[in-house]
Design a protein that fits this description.
The chain is of the alpha/beta class and 414 residues long. It has nine helices and 15 strands. It has two domains: 2-112 and 334-407, 3-Layer(aba) Sandwich (Rossmann fold); 128-309, RecF/RecN/SMC, N-terminal domain (Glutathione S-transferase Yfyf (Class Pi), Chain A, domain 2). The longest helix has 40 residues, at 178-217. The protein is globular, with a radius of gyration of 23 Å. Its main location: cytoplasm. It comes from Subtercola frigoramans. It is found in: Cytoplasm.
């Protein structure tokens, strides 16, 4: 999969931008705050329907506009697609593929990308919710129908939490909670599918993360990924405590893999039992305490939790390894070629040796997009096509990129 052309209208600081892109590496260079990340953020949005920097779409729309438009011309072999997404301030977003209206949630099935940015250090050092989101985005990228499963689970979870809060307020017990049993059934069915799919994904990621970590770090620190399920006995269900940082060196994290059911039926049985044992506590607190929304995946290096024990460089290498492994996994089962690999302001955080190893690790993908504030931070092999950005305008493209003067991208300064 290649992006041949990116067009933005009223997106972030761009009134208008037209950017031709090429097979292989494409480098965007500019001082901080000039708009280079906005270009790759827009493409990342097409594959995940979310930004890696903000949670609200409104921040993506230029302050003076009511809507922003992202257009990308994609190519796989001889087939071309025009994917368009309009982000609106006061009405639902809209989408088109080859000028035909489609549902917005269908857009990611046409475009696949893997984006790594400084924010992704939170995969190693952040809360469990960051790791859950990482797994779920990768699941949906591989199997788009799971977007509906996760959305349905979230809806059922909200309904169940509302009922639990009402029961707590009214002091309802016993037979008065028969409605809760109905929501339990839906929660178990949907949640067990998510748990099973995540477990299978982690199993597939393990060998790829091991290889990618060694490739990026230049060392073998025995990286390990282990599921930690809230439905397993002994697992703490509080997010703020649901973290391996508190584990002592060599301590077995309870619920971190031993005895986890290896079948969907086994997961459902364990889920139902866990809900039954937690019901009194859930009513007392008015919240659902077990399920995939409370799970985590434990990252370890040399048998120690990466969070709390890994150095800054090791944490970066682990996070990079996760993203490179994700790209390799998407490549292995894709019908539309490689995902587009996006490296947003990554090289400034790496030492010289890691820069070279990362360049080698991603160099084999069909298309790689890189942003950097300093050209010299990026290995020369990734600078074949370089675009210079200044204040929301494309001011220069390298002469060897094959673009004729009349075809250069343009933008309007704020």
């Amino acid at each position: 999969m290649l992006v041949r052309h990116l067009s933005l209208t009223d997106y972030r600081n761009y009134s208008r931008a037209e950017v031709p892109l090429f097979r292989g590496p494409n480098l965007f260079v500019g001082r901080n705050g000039q708009g280079k990340t906005n270009l790759v953020e827009a493409l990342g949005y097409l594959s995940t329907l979310g930004s890696h920097r903000v949670s609200n779409d409104q921040a993506l729309i230029k302050s003076s506009a009511q809507a922003a438009i992202i257009r990308a011309r994609l190519q796989h072999e001889e087939r071309e697609l025009l994917v368009e997404l309009q982000l609106n301030r006061s009405e639902p977003n809209r989408a088109q593929v080859n000028r035909s209206v489609v549902k917005v949630r269908e857009i990611p099935r046409y475009f696949s990308s893997v984006l790594f940015a400084p924010e992704d250090l939170a995969l190693v050092r952040g809360d469990p919710s960051v790791r859950r989101r990482f797994l779920d985005q990768l699941l949906v990228a591989r199997t788009p129908r799971l977007a509906g499963v996760t959305a349905d689970y979230d809806r059922v979870l909200r309904q169940r939490n509302t009922l639990l809060k009402s029961a707590r307020t009214a002091g309802v017990r016993g037979s008065g909670l028969s409605t809760l049993d109905i929501w339990d059934d839906r929660l178990v069915v949907l949640g067990s599918e998510i748990i099973t799919e995540r477990a299978a994904l982690v199993s597939e990621l393990r060998p790829r993360v091991d290889a990618a970590y060694r490739a990026v770090a230049g060392a073998d620190h025995a990286p390990r990924l282990t599921n930690r399920l809230s439905i397993m006995p002994g697992t703490n269900t509080d997010d703020e405590l649901h973290d391996t940082h508190a584990a002592e060196p060599g301590e077995l994290v309870r619920g971190a893999g031993a005895g986890i059911p290896d079948t969907r039926a086994g997961v459902e049985e364990a889920f139902r039992a866990s809900l039954a044992s937690a019901r009194k506590q859930e009513i007392d607190r008015g919240i659902t305490l077990v399920g995939p929304h409370r799970d985590d995946v434990v990252f370890e290096l040399n048998s120690l939790p990466a969070k709390g024990y890994a150095s800054h460089g090791e944490s970066w290498s682990f996070a990079l390894g996760l993203k490179v492994a994700s790209a390799e996994l998407l490549r292995s089962d894709s019908q539309t070629g490689d995902p587009v690999v996006i490296l947003d302001d990554v090289f400034a955080e790496l030492d010289q040796s890691r820069r070279g190893r990362l360049a080698a690790a991603v160099g084999g993908f069909e298309q790689v997009l890189i942003t950097a504030a300093v050209l010299e931070d990026v290995p020369a092999e990734l600078a074949a096509h370089t675009v210079h950005i200044d204040a929301g305008a494309i001011v220069d493209q390298d002469a060897d990129d094959g673009v004729r003067p009349g075809e250069r991208g343009g933008g309007t300064r704020d």
